[in-house]
Amino acid sequence: MKTIILFILFTLLNNPSLGQSLVDSLTSDDHDIIFNKLDEIVDQNRVAAIPIIHNIIEQSDPYVQLQFLHTLDALNDQEIRGYTHNLIDRADQFALHESPEDPLFAKVDASGILFKYDDFSTAEYLIEYIELKKPNILWFIDLLPLVYQNVPAYRQVIKDDLVNILENAQYETIRFIALEHLIEFAGTEAITNIVNAFVNNSKSSIRLLAFEGLIKLNYQELNSLFKTRLSLDSDEVIRSLIADTLLIKFGAPSDLKVVIDYQPNEPDETTKSLMEYSINHFIPPKPDKMNWNGLATKLITYTDEMLQYGWIANQQTKDFYTTKLQDIITLINQTNEIDSACIIINTVLLPQVGQDLQEKLITTEGYKFLHYYTIYIKEEIEEELGHCQ
Asked: From CA 252, how far away is CA 246, in angstroms rounded?
C-alpha cells in the first residue's frame, strides 16, 4: 500500500493540475459537483483520490463525509476500517451541523461498512436504530441478517424486530423484506410467524413468500395446512400452487382426493383448467428414502383409502391387492430370495391392475396408485436385491 501511495503522490506532484482538480471538485460547496466527481472516481477506479479524501474527509460536512467513506470502501482502501471507526467516534458532533444525517444514522451507515470486514464491534448502533424506528424502517433492514448471523446475543431482539416489521410496517415492500429475512435466517425459530403470514396477511405477495418459505423449511404441518387453505386463499395463483404442491410434493390418495373435490368449485376459470390438467396428468411421486418393504406396506394402507373413496370398487378387489402385496413382503422376508415375489409383480399384479381398470373394478385414480407403486416396489427390489424378472 505504501508503494501505491508513493506512486500516487509522485503522479500528483508531476501533474499538479490533476490533484488540484480533484481537490477543487471534492471541496466544492455544491454537493452535486462532489457526488458527480465521486461517481466518476468509483466508475474509473481512480485510487489516486484515496489520499486526497483522507486529507479532507474530516473537514467536510457530515453528509459528504459519509459519501467519502463509501467511496473509500468502493476503492478498497486498506485503511477503510480506521477511517470508519474515526467517523463513528466523531458522529455525535454531526448534530451541531445542518445536515440530513443525524448522529445515529451516520453510525449505522458507517457500521454497515465495518460489517463487510467482519467487524461487528458497533452492531449496537444498528439495534438501537431499528428499535427507535420500527416498524416503518426505510434504511438498514438488510444489515440485520449480518448481525443475526455473527452476534448471537442480538438474535432474539432481531427476530422480534423483524416480526414487528412484518406485522406492522406501513409499506408492503418492507414487510416483504422482513419476511425474507425471517425465512432465511430465523428459519424454524420463526415458523409460527411465517404460518401466520401465510394464513392471515392481506397481501398476496407476502402470502406467496410465506408459502415458499414453509416449503423450504419443511414445515411439519404443511400438508394439512395446504389442504385447509386450498379453498380459503383469496388469490388464484396461490390456490393453483397449493393444488400442484399437494399433488407433486405429497401425492398421497388423500391429496389427490382433496384437489379432485375442490377443482369443480374453483371460481377462476383459468385456474380451474390448470387444476384439471394437473389431475389428469397426475402420477404418484415416488417417496424418498423408502425401500421396497416400506413401499409395499404403504400401498397396502392406500388400498384402504382408495376403497373408501370409491377408487376400488369393492372389498373383494381390495383384498386381492392387499393379499398379493403381503405375499411379496412375506416371501422376501422369509426366503431372502426374490424370484417368487417378482413373479407376483410381473405376471399377477401389473397385468391385473390393467384388467381391473378396463372392467371398471378400479378407477383411473386407483389404477395410478396401484400401477406406479408396484413399479416403485419392483425398482427398489432390484436396487437392493437384484434383477426382478
From this structure: 8
- Domain identity same for 4 and 112: yes
State the SS3 of 121-167: CCHHHHHHHHHHHCCCCCCCHHHHHHHHHHCHHHHHHHHHHHHHHHH
Q: For residues 325 and 300, is the Cβ–Cβ distance under 8 A?
A: yes
Q: Which domain holds residue 361?
A: 292-385
Name the grid cell of 144: 440485520
- Per-residue pLDDT tens over the stretch 351-376: 999 999 999 999 999 999 999 999 99
Q: How confident is the model at residue 101 (pLDDT cuts 50, 70, 90)?
A: low
Report the pLDDT value the prediction gives residue 6, as an integer from 0 to 100. Answer: 40
In the three-class reduction of DSSP (H, G, I as helix; E, B as strand; rest coil), residue 296 is classed as helix
110 and 16, same structural domain? yes
Contacts of 166 (CB under 8 A, 6+ apart): 175, 178, 179, 182, 193, 197, 206
Nearest CA-CA partner of 203 in 166, 149, 255: 166
pLDDT over threshold 60, residue 96 = no
Residues 24 and 108 in one domain: yes
Contact 367, 357 (CB under 8 A): yes
**Ramachandran angles phi, psi of 200, nearest 5°:** -115, -15
- CA–CA separation, 361 vs 153, rounded Å? 64
The count of domains in the chain is 4
Specify if 90 maps to a domain. yes
In one-letter notation, the amino acid at residue 339 is D
Neighbours of 169 (CB within 10 A): 20
Residues 21 and 114 in one domain: yes
Model pLDDT for residues 173-232, shown as the tens digit of each residue? 999 999 999 999 998 999 999 999 999 999 999 999 999 999 999 999 999 999 999 999
Residue at 36 is within a domain? yes
- In the chain, the amino acid numbered 10 is F
| Radius of gyration of the chain measured on its C-alpha atoms | 33
Residue of 205, 245, 248, 253 whose CA lies nearest to 225: 245
Q: Are residues 82 and 45 in the same domain?
A: yes
Q: What is the pLDDT of residue 30?
A: 82
